[in-house]
């Protein structure tokens, strides 16, 4: 299990990489373009990620057939990154990321909206049952 310091460092690298992608690409593109660009930028920094990772839904201990979600990016098997290209982030977007964290057993997620003039205004860091405190 990653330590709190590892997760904080990793989230900082992810945010720096996302800022670089936004600086290079600007707002206004499709979510999948930012996803592919961010995965490439992370890889150039020596950070692994998996795109569109299937996340099954479990109901009372049983996986629901043909039901599930896809995590935009799972970085270093530790941080879930959910990307958006919307006019503004809404509470439902935070709920979506928190649900992914709960279903996957991960503790740290980043919600990143690329459809903003300054990317720092489109980033939210969410924690679910953080085990270190």
Write up this protein:
This protein is 38% helix and 32% strand. The longest helix has 22 residues, at 4-25. It has one domain (4-127). The protein is globular. The chain has three helices and five strands; from the N terminus they run H-H-E-E-E-H-E-E. A hairpin with a 2-residue loop joins strand 1 and strand 2 (62-75). It has 133 residues and is an alpha+beta fold. It has a five-stranded mixed beta sheet, with helices on both faces. It holds the Pfam family PDDEXK_3. It comes from Luteolibacter soli. This is GxxExxY protein.
Key descriptive features of the protein:
5-stranded mixed sheet; 5 strands; alpha+beta; globular; 32% strand; 3 helices; 133 residues; single chain
State the gist of this model.
Helix content is 38%, strand content 32%. The chain has 133 residues and is of the alpha+beta class. Helix 1 (4-25) packs across helix 2.
């Amino acid at each position: 299990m990653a330590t709190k310091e590892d997760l904080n460092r990793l989230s900082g690298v992810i945010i720096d990489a996302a800022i670089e992608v936004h600086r290079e690409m600007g707002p206004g593109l499709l979510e999948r373009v930012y996803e592919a660009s961010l995965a490439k930028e992370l890889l150039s920094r020596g950070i692994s990620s998996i795109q569109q990772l299937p996340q099954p839904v479990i109901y009372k201990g049983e996986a629901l057939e043909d039901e599930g979600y896809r995590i935009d990016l799972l970085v270093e098997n530790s941080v879930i990154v959910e990307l958006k290209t919307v006019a503004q982030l809404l509470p439902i977007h935070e709920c979506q990321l928190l649900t992914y964290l709960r279903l996957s057993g991960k503790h740290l997620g980043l919600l990143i909206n690329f459809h903003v003039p300054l990317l720092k205004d489109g980033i939210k860091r969410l924690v679910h049952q953080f085990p270190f405190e």
